[in-house]
Write a structure and sequence with these properties.
Elements: H1 2-41, H2 45-48, H3 54-79, H4 81-101, H5 104-120, E1 143-148, E2 151-156, E3 165-172, E4 175-182
Length: 189
């Protein structure tokens, strides 16, 4: 049995290793979605930071905002000196807004705003005026799928005929993280 048993054990070990790696790879995005949802519901910005690559998300949102502004201005305005000045000012202000909001603290402030909004609309757990508000659950009815082996997309329905928000995850080290938020801003004037 000697070398034949050793080969069988090695084959079984390799197969188990490949199965474990595949389970981690394909299950990782779903675990990230679950953790991200829980962090949002619990308003835990420290935990949220584990699931979001904030520098990449900020960079992407700035690029989307700049593209939107250029398309809204149109070619005539963008080509004029006054248009270039306005575009530069819009880029500065929009970039500053993105840089401020797309941080754990900015997300925390938005989640606190959500609490105030829910309290103002009387959306409280158990109808108790002093009770907790209904938690934010933006990913509750989201659809998700792999676009590629290293790209997982969550489509969040924003309602009112708007295109879905696309939340893009990619692997980083041993975990999957949000690397892009595609807002679907159309800029046709």
């Amino acid at each position: 049995c000697g070398s034949l048993c050793g080969m069988k054990k090695l084959t079984v070990l390799v197969v188990l290793l490949v199965l474990a790696l595949a389970a981690w790879w394909f299950g990782g995005p779903y675990m990230t979605v679950r953790g991200l949802s829980q962090a949002i519901e619990q308003r835990d910005t420290a935990r949220l930071e584990r699931y979001v690559d904030f520098p990449r998300v900020r960079s992407s949102l700035r690029a989307q905002l700049n593209d939107y502004l250029v398309r809204q201005a149109g070619p005539d305005v963008a080509a004029s000196p006054f248009g270039a000045l306005l575009y530069g000012l819009g880029d500065q202000l929009g970039g500053a807004a993105v840089d401020t909001m797309v941080t754990p603290t900015g997300i925390g402030a938005m989640l606190q705003g959500h609490v105030l909004w829910k309290r103002g609309r009387n959306e409280l757990q158990g109808g108790d005026a002093f009770g907790a508000t209904e938690p934010a659950r933006p990913l509750k009815n989201a659809e998700h799928h792999f676009e590629a082996l290293d790209r997982f997309v969550i489509d969040v329905d924003r309602g009112a005929g708007q295109p879905p928000l696309k939340v893009v995850l990619e692997p980083q080290g041993l975990r999957w993280k949000v690397v892009d938020l595609q807002l679907g801003m159309s800029g046709s004037p």
